[in-house]
Amino acid sequence: MKPFRYLFFLLYLLGANGLAQNEATHSFTKSKAVSSEQYQSMTFNGVWSWFSDPRAVYYEGKHKRTYAGWIDNYGDVHIGFYDHDTKQISTAIIYDNLEIDDHDNPTILFDAEGKLLVFFNTHLQDERPLFMRTSTNPEDISDWSPIRELYLNDGSTYTDAKVNRHTYTNPVRLSKEDGKIYLFWRGIDLKPSYSVSTDNGATWSKGKILFQPEELKNLKSPYTKVYSDGVSKIHFTFTDGHPTKEKNNGLYYIYYENGAFYKANGEKNKDVSQLPILQSELDVIFESDTIKSWNWDIAQDANGHPIVTYAKFPDENTHVYTYATFTNNQWQSYDLIDAGGWFPKTRKGTKESEPQYAGGIVIDHETPNTVYLSVKRDSVFEIEQWATNTKGKSWKVKKITKNSTKDNVRPFAVRNAKKGNPLQILWLQNTKYIYYAHDTRGKGIPLDFKDRYHTAVKMNLLKPTLNAELTKESLITLLRQVAEQLLENPDHTLAQNDWRYGVMFAGIEAFYEITKEARYKNELLNIQQYQQEESEDSDEDEVNLFSLIWSHNTKNDRAALQKIEMLTPKDFSFKTLYFPVASWMYTIRNFKENITEIELLKKEFILEVNGVLINEFDSEPFTRTFRNEALMIYSLAAGINDGLVDIKHSDTVIETWKKFQEKLLENDQFKKVDIETNAAILLAGKEVFEILNVK
């Protein structure tokens, strides 16, 4: 360990008020770690904070599925699942346009029948309720009850309250209390609060403050982590405030059982009727005069004793992950590693507003001697699995990701995923993360809409192996990876009236037409709904013809349609054949109701295909670039599928695509091409898929 790092650990020992603090050892084991880009995405656009749990749950009934929830960067709240038998992913929107803020992710609870009870919230919006939705049928996310608004903060009791918000949701069901549901959130005056339902969420008690920290002048905002065995016990760990706002920020513990609260040693604190719990009444896990902390996770061991993970901050650039157990009737903490500071990409010339945003460390609740953490390796945050058989003193480390090009943060160990379950961990892969919301609320320079967070939710399941054999299944597998390559790496430098942007939209739309998967359709709808705000220097009359043809807005733009109406074959006569011919085909298909001389356009297209296009398939210009090939295949295949070109040319399409696919898969070439090329691949692939359907 470098000398200055060692000095920090000495400071821990000196500043921890007598609590046992030790430095753990660790060693690496062999692993088949790969970059995070090689893992499957449950969604290409989803994010979460770490104070609403559970975010992912394995449930086995009629199906074997891992369910998860997230909010995307358009403010839509999603629930999705991975089916372990079919290997398919399905998603549903349960709230459209809630708020662009990563604190709003949903949490999941299953009832006795297997129906999903989902809870979610807004973040910094006063007077907004908690929200609840219930799936209509067990293990089914396709149909939901109406949205319920739960105004649980009790303003009539807490009449002097200054803040009335509902943030973070943590639902718990206790079987020994006849299935009673406890719902915890950060509520009135920013305090940990709770409500109870005895009828499966149909009605709720008025909210009560659970924990009251010591306050002098300003309101404090404690942070809560909750875990229950689902039977009788609920564990809590609290901070007494936010680490950027408090001079000292300690970490505390208590548990609930059978109507009362207890310290870790079983000493009774108080009954529910005597709430709130005061800071002086809690177990102290960590306190320091010089070092701040933030809770990350809480679980229990086989004996029901608590286990806690948290981060400590000797300074803003040092984030030390710590594993705490209640051993021999006392709290014992081991410092694992300095994780490498915060992960948000601080804009040049600005001060980081969330310097305590660590990558994160969570506990495998089914195997609590195992943790998953995000640590900076060679300037990139990677995901690792750490396991101990010494209650935190020594660890075996297995890398899950390595050599990634993007940060991997905020892991979550799937609840109920027992040992042997192939899907144990989900995490966020950051394409962009500057701030947790679109609206900076005065905390910093305002963000452009294009600069809001963009993250994918990754699973520890490798992407399916791609092969050159041409079947409908292998084709969809390839096209899915191409589509996700596009969606996980958006190019915000493209104006929405740029033809390349239009081709990208058309490519994603083509893939959706094959799969009919809601997550792709929703992304298309969001692109249409939220136009990037731009100032255009050029006059509308000067907009490129091909940009009009490919734009998803043209059909709703009368001025643009008037230009489309007058198109003739001469408009597609260019020395470079490939893109104009593809645009010609796309025009015939999408604007046949609008073009005055549509029959002439069709006739001349057929002549162009038979006289020129067919002969180009073996030419050097055709094979020069992937984009040329994809556009040519699209033009011929779409012509066949629309009945404009003789079906006998289907064999040419299939044989050409086979060679094309082989080249695409060589060294993952499709991951190295530009946006318009991948979009062209999707367009062509969809038409090839339709031909395969007929054969």
Provide a descriptive summary of the structure in words.
Strand 17 and strand 18 form a beta hairpin. The chain has 695 residues and is of the alpha+beta class. Helix 3 (499-515) packs antiparallel against helix 4 (518-529) and helix 10 (626-641) packs antiparallel against helix 11. The protein is elongated and about 90 Å long. Residues 1-15 and 532-541 have low confidence and may be disordered. The strands form 8 sheets. Strands 17, 18, 19, 20, 21 and 23 form a 6-stranded antiparallel beta sheet that branches. The protein has a 5-stranded mixed beta sheet with strand order 1-27-26-25-24. The chain has a 5-stranded mixed beta sheet with strand order 2-31-30-29-28, with no helix packed on it. The chain is 23% helix and 29% strand. The longest helix is centred in the last third of the chain and has 20 residues, at 675-694.
What tags apply to this protein structure?
695 residues; five-stranded mixed sheet; 12 helices; disordered N terminus
Task: Tell me the fraction of residues in β-strands, as a range.
Answer: 25-35%
Mean pLDDT: 93
Based on the structure, what is the oligomeric state of the protein chains? Answer: single chain
Global morphology: elongated
By DSSP, the count of extended strands is 34
Estimated structural class = alpha+beta
**Biggest sheet architecture:** 6 strands, antiparallel
Poorly predicted runs are: 1-15, 532-541
Overall radius of gyration: 28 Å
Give the proportion of residues in helices: 10-25%
* Total helical elements: 12
Rounded to the nearest angstrom, the distance between the terminal CA atoms is 65 Å
